Here is the input.
Amino acid sequence: MTEVSVAKEDVAATGDLVVLKSVNKHFGALHVLQDIDLTIARGEVVVVIGPSGSGKSTLCRTINRLETIDSGSITIDGKPLPHEGKELARLRADVGMVFQSFNLFAHKTVLENVTLGQVKVRKKDKKAAEERARALLDRVGVGAQAEKYPAQLSGGQQQRVAIARALAMEPKVMLFDEPTSALDPEMINEVLEVMQQLARDGMTMIVVTHEMGFARSAANRVVFMADGRIVEQASPDQFFSNPRSDRAKDFLSKILHH
Amino acid sequence: MFDFLSNYDDPSLLGAFWVTVQLTVFSAVGSLVWGTLLAAMRVSPVPLMRGFGTAYVNLVRNIPLTVIIVFTSLGLADIFGVTMGARDDFDLMYFRLAVLGLVAYTAAFVCEAIRSGINTVPVGQAEAARALGLNFGQVLRLVVLPQAFRSVIGPLANVLIALTKNTTVAATIGVAEAAFLMKGMIENEAQTLLIGAVFAFGFVVLTLPTGLFLNWLSKRLAVKR
Here is the structure.
C-alpha cells in the first residue's frame, strides 16, 4: 500500500503539478476565462501578468475552486478538482493561497492564525503546530509579533504572516493573488523577498502580480493574459525584451516607461 | 405603604421575580443555541436547510408570542399530550412549556441578529479559512461565528431585554412569575399604581444592568480590523 503511493509520487514528481484544460468561466454575460490551457510543472514559478480585468485573479482562484468553472478541467497532482465537500477541503489544504487583502483571521493572534489549519485540518498536536508556526514566523521575519493581533501589524507584516499561514500546511503549490497590490510601496520589498526565497527553495508557485521586477528575477515563465485569454507565454527574458504579440507590446510599453 | 406585600408569600414578590429570572435564563440559553443553529442553516450551502431556516424565521417571528405560549398549553399539552417530562407536576410542566414557547419565538430574533453579524464578517475571512482546507462547519465555528457574535452583542442585548419582559406572557398559561403575581395583587389590593410601580421597578432592576454589562462587553470584545 505504502509502496504503491510512493511509486505514484515518483511518477508525479517528474510530471506536471497543475494542469488546466480548456477552462471556461462566465460572470453573467462576461466571458472571463476563455479556453484556458495552462500546465505548471513541479517546482516551477509562473507569474501571471496582464491588465486589470483580464481574468488573471479569477484564473488563480479557480485552481483551489474558490471560483467554480463552467467547463473544462483542472487537475492537481493528477487528481481532478473535486466538488464541494470533504475531498475538496483535503485538496485545498495542499494548495496554499495568499490573498491581496491578507485575510488574516482578525479575532486570532498571529500564532493562532498559523496553527489553526495545522491543528484542525492536519490534526497535528498543538505543541508541534506552535513549534512549526514559530519557525515559519521567524523564517518570514515576524517571529517577534507572534502574540499580537493582525490589526496591530503593518500590511507587509500581515502579508508575511499570511504566507507563513499557508506554508504551515506544507502545500504542494502556492497561489499568490496580487500579494503586494494592497501594500504601501516601502513594504512591497519585504514581501517580495520572502517570495523570492520561497522560489529559490523550489516551491511551485503561481503568482498573479503587477511586480515586473519579481517576474524578471524569480519567474521561470511569464504568462500574459488579456480579455480572458492567455495571449502569450515565454521566459521572462524573452517576454520583457522581445514580446511577440501586439497586446503584450502595448501593455509593456504602458507600464515600463515611467 | 408597602404593607400589602407581606400578604403574599406563595409566591412572594421575590419568589415571583425568581421565576421570571429562571424563565429568562433558560429561554436565553435555549434561544441562543437554537437561534445559532437557525443562522447556520440560513447561510448553509444546502438549499433544503436554507429553506427551512427562512421559513421558520418568517413564520415564527410574525406570530404573536401570546398565541405561541397559549398553543404550547392548549395545543402541545392538551391535544398532543406533550408533558415535557413532568406529567405529575403541573407547575414544572407549564414552566417548561413556557420556556419551549419562549425559545421557539426568541430564536427567530436571535437568528436574524446573528445573521446580520455574519454579514459584517468580510468574505475574505471565510475564503481564507476554506483555502486552508477547513470544512463548512469549521469555517463557521472557528472563523465566522466568533467574529459575528462579537459584532452583534449589542443587538443580542436588545433581544435579551425583550425576552426578559416577554416572560410575562407565561402568566397566560399559569406560570407563577412576576406578572402573574401582579395580576393577583391588582385584583385583591387597592394600591394599583403602587403595584404597577413595584413591578416596573423590578423589571428595570433586571434589565438595566444586563444592558449596561453587554454594552461594555461588546466594546471590549470588538474585533479590530
About this structure: The beta strands of chain A are 16-27, 30-41, 45-49, 71-76, 79-80, 95-98, 173-177, 204-208, 221-226, 229-234. The radius of gyration of chain A is 18 Å. Residues 185-200 of chain A form the longest helix (16 residues). Chain A has two domains: 42-68+78-94+172-258, 106-170.
